[in-house]
């Protein structure tokens, strides 16, 4: 079971997962504050803003971690 968890907090997979969860939480918080239903373009934009920081965090952790 211990093989499934990262051995370090600088593990790239762990870092990108944490960043993705934080980005998703921030976007959900923002969506809760805005009125109306999301358009398809908005959904694509949200997916971009969740995956882009996670990808950057993964690459930074992989190179410098």
From TrEMBL:
Residue ranges crossing the lipid bilayer per the database entry: 12-31, 43-61
The alphabetical list of record keywords is: Membrane, Transmembrane, Transmembrane helix
UniProt name for this protein: Uncharacterized protein
